[in-house]
Amino acid sequence: MALQPIKYSRRRDLPLKQIMALYRANGWSAADKPRQLKRGLRNSDELVTAWDGRRLVGLGNAITDGSLVVYYPHLLVHPEYQARGIGRRILEQLLLKYAEVHQQILVAEPQAARFYRRLGFKRAGKALALEIFQGHEHLRKTKAKRKAVRPGVPS
């Protein structure tokens, strides 16, 4: 745990083991695709990482056309380091870099929406997030949540 101040970096030569540990600790399915994940992070337009010594404890990235749209696909902090302002600091650095971009977009799980609202994000009107997802992880979670919310209703 953090005995020294967390350091933030824009380095891209992240050790694969560190990336995998962070994604697995958060239960992200991208951990099942290590080569694609590492390549995707390296090819991001911007990547901000958080380090406790030599341990990767958080990261956030951005993909953009540089003028009209920036998308923030990943923001995650190791569970042992959450609620310490690390995610906020990472996202603030990304927001500062892209402050002049017309539209800044992210997709948030319901439990994270409050965090993003505090940083200025709001629901995009009546817009819905749509995706083509190579896997079934999200579908299982959605069906499970539906059953928990509406017991007895077939899904």
Just name the CATH architecture.
3-Layer(aba) Sandwich
CATH first level: which class?
Alpha Beta
Give the full name of the CATH homologous superfamily. Gcn5-related N-acetyltransferase (GNAT)
Please indicate the percent range of residues in DSSP E strands (runs of 2 or more). 15-25%
Q: Number of DSSP helices? A: 5
Determine the mean pLDDT.
85
Beta strands, count: 6
Q: SS-based structural class?
A: alpha+beta
Helix content: 25-40%
Number of structural domains: 1
Shape: globular
Strand count, sense and barrel status of the largest sheet are: 6 strands, mixed
Structural descriptors:
about 160 residues, alpha+beta, Aminopeptidase, six-stranded mixed sheet, about 20% strand, disordered C terminus
List the helices and strands and how they pair.
Blueprint: E1 7-9, H1 16-25, H2 34-42, E2 46-52, E3 55-64, E4 69-71, E5 75-77, H3 86-97, E6 103-105, H4 113-118, H5 137-149
Parallel strand pairs: 4-6
Antiparallel strand pairs: 1-2, 2-3, 3-4, 3-5
